[in-house]
Amino acid sequence: MNFVVKIFPEITIKSKPVRQRFVKQLRRNIRTLLRPIDPGIDVTGTWDKIIISTEQQDKQVCRQIREQLQHTPGICHILEVVDFPLVDLDDITEKAFQVMGEAIRGKTFCVRCQRNGHHEFSSIEVERYVGGGLLQRVQDCSVKLKNPDVTVRIEIHHKQLYIVRERHLGIGGYPLGTQDAVLSLISGGFDSTISSFLTMKRGVLTHFCFFNLGGHAHEIGVKEVAYYLWSKYGASHRVKFITVPFEGVVEEILTKVDNSYMGVVLKRMMLRAADKVAENLDVHALVTGEAISQVSSQTLPNLGVINQATDRLVLRPLITMDKQDIIDTAARIGTEEFAKHMPEYCGVISVNPTTRAKPEKVSREEQVFDFAVLEQAINSASAVSIHEVMQDDRQIHEVQIDEVLPEQAIVIDIRHPDEEENKPLELDNEVKTVPFYQLSRVFAELDRNQHYYLYCEKGVMSQLHALHLLDEGYKNVKVYRPAK
């Protein structure tokens, strides 16, 4: 079985040196990706196509090769072909019948031919001659030039004949490694995963930066989706996954910054931290999943103020995309299920957020912020190579969730103070109010012989924080989720 790879059309309009460099990089990437599947694979070709030859006849191996090619940036189409030495028109017809005879039986078909080299016949002559020959050899078939059931594709490259058995769509884009590197701010939701995919598809080496707001469980979830993206679409190159512990930064913002400006200030702090991480990686651009007015912090005035936090280029691949288009893309590339089950921290969002942030107001709000907390978060960042990102020996514990509270149980309401004030939790049991951003510090001072039940409105944050506390060695924490 052989494969003919057609390169992405945008590459073909590049200058000759750039085009040659792109195709050379694509060949290198394909070798890197396919040799673990078939060590004997041969990858050749230049200019507008790449020929992949394998001695493997195993259908499973061939399927793995095809799927890997379909997920490799820079490829427009993948053709599964049977190749023969080129003889004459009668022999081409015979070979087409051998390969495609059964496929067109009882169906409409047309013949399409592409040639490279000098021959005694034209492509149109091949199409007419082979089409007529197949009509004579195959019963119950007919020619239909528009929208046929089957297209018989023939490729002729100088003295070599390729009969195409199947044609598959690639993802397009540029070969990975042809562009400089970026640092993508990834939260694991729909937006940041799609923005990361789009930069990878464009040939950009994409490192991942995660700001941890919710403990080890959330970090594992984001690592899983980042690893998935890399292993499926970018495994020809190694990149980094960086975790920045941001719980302290969040607490500083929520206790000192005006409510309406919390979201904008948080984004600015993330850009400042990402700028330092990018500097250490020698990366010149940041990537975010922001889209115009999708949420309050993403209005044009707010984005302008957020941008002022860094001199580094900030790329926003989704800036004009509709949310449904983003979700549809996630379904197509396989990240939808990750995103659907990734928690969002609504407690970090302002209750009455501004949509027209003023630079002078942001400056006043940030004057009360202790930037030593941000520096500590940056200095505590951890980096791991993406291929090792899931080799984590820490254990995620299953947290117990109860709908009915024991008589002596103490409930800890971890909601944001504004949310708790608007909708107080009324129970017969003792209730402590500890905002989630203070929980780790306060919980260390509590009686370890007493069991505590964490509570939040949706049950997401309480479960994650309970998992985090269990991971820290506490055994006396559970989650209270009342039956609806």
How would you characterize the overall build of this protein?
With 484 residues, this protein is an alpha/beta fold. The chain has helices at 9-12, 16-34, 59-70, 89-104, 123-137, 190-201, 216-233, 247-256, 262-281, 300-307, 323-333, 336-340, 359-367, 371-379, 417-422, 439-443, 460-471, and strands at 2-7, 42-44, 49-53, 75-85, 108-116, 142-143, 150-157, 160-172, 179-185, 204-212, 240-245, 285-287, 313-315, 382-385, 401-402, 410-413, 430-433, 452-455, 477-480. Strands 2-3-1-4-8-7-5-6 form an 8-stranded mixed β-sheet. Strands 13-12-9-10-11-14 form a 6-stranded mixed β-sheet, sandwiched between helices. The chain is elongated and about 90 Å long. The termini are far apart.
Which secondary structure elements does this structure contain, and how are they paired or packed?
Elements: E1 2-7, H1 9-12, H2 16-34, E2 42-44, E3 49-53, H3 59-70, E4 75-85, H4 89-104, E5 108-116, H5 123-137, E6 142-143, E7 150-157, E8 160-172, E9 179-185, H6 190-201, E10 204-212, H7 216-233, E11 240-245, H8 247-256, H9 262-281, E12 285-287, H10 300-307, E13 313-315, H11 323-333, H12 336-340, H13 359-367, H14 371-379, E14 382-385, E15 401-402, E16 410-413, H15 417-422, E17 430-433, H16 439-443, E18 452-455, H17 460-471, E19 477-480
Parallel strand pairs: 5-6, 5-7, 9-10, 9-12, 10-11, 12-13, 15-19, 16-17, 16-18, 18-19
Antiparallel strand pairs: 1-3, 1-4, 2-3, 4-8, 7-8, 11-14
Helix pairs in contact: 4-5, 6-7, 6-11, 8-9, 9-10, 9-14
